[in-house]
Amino acid sequence: xxxxxxxxxxxxxxxxxxxxxxxxxxxxxxxxxxxxxxxxxxxxxxxxxxxxxxxxxxxxxxxxxxxxxxxxxxxxxxxxxxxxxxxxxxxxxxxxxxxxxxxxxxxxxxxxxxxxxxxxxxxxxxxxxxxxxxxxxxxxxxxxxxxxxxxxxxxxxxxxxxxxxxxxxxxxxxxxxxxxxxxxxxxxxxxxxxxxxxxxxxxxxxxxxxxxxxxxxxxxxxxxxxxxxxxxxxxxxxxxxxxxxxxxxxxxxxxxxxxxxxxxxxxxxxxxxxxxxxxxxxxxxxxxxxxxxxxxxxxxxxxxxxxxxxxxxxxxxxxxxxxxxxxxxxxxxxxxxxxxxxxxxxxxxxxxxxxxxxxxxxxxxx
Amino acid sequence: xxxxxxxxxxxxxxxxxxxxxxxxxxxxxxxxxxxxxxxxxxxxxxxxxxxxxxxxxxxxxxxxxxxxxxxxxxxxxxxxxxxxxxxxxxxxxxxxxxxxxxxxxxxxxxxxxxxxxxxxxxxxxxxxxxxxxxxxxxxxxxxxxxxxxxxxxxxxxxxxxxxxxxxxxxxxxxxxxxxxxxxxxxxxxxxxxxxxxxxxxxxxxxxxxxxxxxxxxxxxxxxxxxxxxxxxxxxxxxxxxxxxxxxxxxxxxxxxxxxxxxxxxxxxxxxxxxxxxxxxxxxxxxxxxxxxxxxxxxxxxxxxxxxxxxxxxxxxxxxxxxxxxxxxxxxxxxxxxxxxxxxxxxxxxxxxxxxxxxxxxxxxxxxxxxxxxxxxxxxxxxxxxxxxxxxxxxxxxxxxxxxxxxxxxxxxxxxxxxxxxxxxxxxxxxxxxxxxxxxxxxxxxxxxxxxxxxxxxxxxxxxxxxxxxxxxxxxxxx
Lengths: 366, 478
Known about the structure:
The structure holds 2 protein chains of 2 kinds.
Chain A: H1 9-24, E1 38-46, E2 49-58, E3 61-68, H2 69-72, E4 85-94, E5 98-104, E6 107-112, E7 115-122, E8 125-133, E9 147-150, E10 154-159, E11 162-167, E12 173-178, E13 183-187, E14 192-197, E15 204-208, E16 213-215, E17 223-227, E18 234-239, E19 242-246, H3 248-252, E20 272-274, E21 281-286, E22 289-298, E23 306-314, E24 317-320, E25 325-327, E26 330-336, E27 342-348, E28 355-363
Antiparallel strand pairs in A: 1-2, 2-3, 4-28, 5-6, 6-7, 7-8, 9-10, 10-11, 11-12, 13-14, 14-15, 15-16, 17-18, 18-19, 19-20, 21-22, 22-23, 23-24, 23-25, 26-27, 27-28
Chain B: H1 2-18, E1 34-38, H2 55-68, E2 73-75, E3 81-83, E4 86-91, E5 97-102, H3 116-124, E6 131-135, E7 138-142, H4 150-155, E8 163-164, E9 170-171, E10 176-182, E11 186-191, E12 204-208, H5 213-221, E13 227-229, H6 232-240, E14 244-258, H7 268-277, H8 280-287, E15 293-294, H9 301-304, H10 316-325, E16 333-338, H11 342-357, E17 362-367, E18 379-385, H12 391-401, H13 416-427, E19 432-444, E20 448-450, E21 472-474
Parallel strand pairs in B: 1-12, 1-13, 16-17, 16-18
Antiparallel strand pairs in B: 2-3, 4-5, 5-7, 6-7, 8-9, 10-11, 11-12, 13-19, 14-18, 14-19, 15-19, 20-21
Helix pairs in contact in B: 7-10
C-alpha cells in the first residue's frame, strides 16, 4: 500500500478499515516492496458523482470494482446531507451513575443507582429537594441501566428486576416491587414500543408494540427505535454485533416460532447490519425530518469522548442529517423524552468519574 | 474476491458517507463468553496460606487472587484506601482500637452470608499482633500498640476474607468462584452470580498454565486465547506481527541483593564497585528490548516522582578504583537466580561480564530456591513485584523481598521526603542494587474489551498490573 504524503482523518479511517478488513480475509497489507499483489483504491469524481474504484493487481491478473457512491446513500437537493444540528445542554452532574432524567414542569427527576431524586430550580440552579430509595435485594448488575417515565404528577422508574411507581404530590414518594414488566422505550403516536429488560444483565430480550410481540431469546438487544419512514416503517435494534435495521417482514421473522433468519439469506431477510454505530439508538420527532430521525451513538475505545449523530433513512439506508455532537466521555445512557422531541444522554466523564446528563434537542437551522 | 471487495467497499463508502469519526463504535459491555488466559508459570496450589515456589507462580497467584478473594479494604491506583467488604471504619485517638462496619448482603461463593463472626475467624489467623472480635454487627480490632498501618495490612492479599467448606475447599466473596482446579495445568473460574458488586460480564475464565511463550503467541494468533503473557523478549516480534498489546505501569523491580552472612559480601567498596560497573543501558536495550527503565531506586518514578534522584549510571573508572581497593575473594562471587527464569539467567550472565570488566569475578548460578538460607550463594537476582500503588506498602514489600530488615513492620510515612529518606537509607550501603523497573505486557485478542479504567486492557499507561476480570467482556465478532 502506498500512502499519500498527507492524509486526513477520513482517509486514515478508510485505510485502517481497509487493512483490518483485508486482514480478516488473510490479505496482509505491506508498505514495503514485498507484497505479492497490489490493491489500489481511488476515490474518483466524475460528472455522475463520486465512485470508489478498487484495483487488485497480482502479476498479470487485474480485477476492478467500481462502487458509485450515489448507490449507497444519494444526496439530493430535496435531502441535503446536513440539514439540522444537535443542541446539547447540561442538565445535571453527580458522582453516582445517572440512569435517566425526566423534566416535569419546573422540576426534575433524576434516576440513579440509589433511587430517584427530586430537584427544583432555585436562582437558575438545580437543587436536590428529596430523594427516595430504590434497591434490589440481589444488587445491581454491571453496566446498570434504568428508565424513567413521567406524567405531570406521577412517575415510574424501571430498574433491572424492579419497577417503582411514585408521586410528586402531596408528598414525594415511591414504592417499588420486584417485577419483570416491560420498559417503555418509545411512546410516540406512531408507535408505542416496550421491551423486557433482563434482570441481572444490561440488555433486552423481548420487543413489543401495542399490537404485536416480537420475541426470540437469542436475539438480545441494547436499545430499539421505531421510525415511520418515508416509504415504509423501520425498526432499528442494537444487537451485540451491531445495529440492525428491519422492515416489517424481517422483524416478523423474529417471532418466537420462526426465529431470526440468517442475515445472508436475502430471500427471507432484508434486514441489514451497521457496525459503525454504538449500542444506543433513539427515534426522535422533528419537523425537519417528517419521516422521523434516529440518534445513534458512536465512538471508539477512547473513554474521553463519544458522539451522537442524527440520521434519516432514505431507501432504507441511513443518511447523516447532522454533524456528530461530541460528548466529553463515554455515553452510558440514551433515552427519548416522553414526547420524543428530545433525548437524554448521560456521559461518564473520565476526568472526575462523574456522570453528566444532557438534554439533546434537534434544531432545524441548517 | 471481487464479491468480498464489493462488500468491503460498501462498508468503506458507508463509512465515508456517514462521516463517523471512528470506524468501529464503542459498544455496551456484553454479558457472556469464556476468557481464555495462558500463562507460562505453573501454580500448584491455590491456598492463601501457601506460598508458590517460583516468582512467576507467585505473580500468577497474585493476579488470580483478586478473582476469588476480597479484603475489608482495597487500595486504589492513587494509593488511597477505599472500601471493599467494609464500608465504614473508625478508630480511637491512639489507633489501637478500630471498628469496622461490614457491607450488607455480601455472599460467599456457596451462597452463605458474610458475617462479622466469619470475618473475625478469617482475620484472627492473619493479624498476629491484634485481636479481632465482633460487637453486634460490627467488627473490632484491638492491639496493645497503635495500628497506624492497619488499613494497609487489611488491604493485602494475605488478609483476604476466606471461608472453608466442610470438605476443606476455600471460598471467597470475589467476582468468580473456582470451578475446576488441575494443579499446575488448568484452572476454571465461573461467574459468582450473587457477587455484591454485580455479576461479572464473563461467564467463565479459563487459565491454562505451563504454556511456553511461543505457543501462547500462536494461541492468540489462532484465536485460541484472549490474553497471553508477553515477556520482554517476545514484545518486539509481537509488535511486528501487529498483535494488540497492553502494557502496565512498572510492575516489578529487578535488583541484586547481597547476603549479609557471607564474608565475600561484607566489603562495602566491592558492593559499590559492582553497582557502578553494571551496564544497565546495554541490558535494557538488548536483553529487555527497551522495555521498562534502568533503575537506581526501589520504587519506580511513576509511583514516587523522585526516582530520578537515585542514579543508575555506569562509572567504570570509579568501579575499577573501588574494586582495586576492595578485598577481593579468591573465589568468584556466586550470583543466584531462579532456575527456569530465562530472563533472569541472561541478565545474570551479563552482570557477570560487567563484573569481570572491573576485576570482580561473578559466577551465575541457577537455583531452584535461591531464597532459602541454606543455599550457597553470595548475592541473588531478585524479581520483586510492586504489590500496591501505596508507596509505603510497596516499599515495605520490596524491602522484605530483598532481605532488607531496616523498615519496621508498621512502616508508614507522612510525606514524600520521609519516603525518600527511607528509601535512601535502604540503599545507602549497597546491600541492594536496583537494576530495572519492568512493566508487565500482555497480548490481547481484538475482541477483548474492558469497562474499567484500571488494570488489564485499560487505555493509557497509568494502570498497575492488575487483572480486573470482572470488568472484562468479549465483543461479539462482526
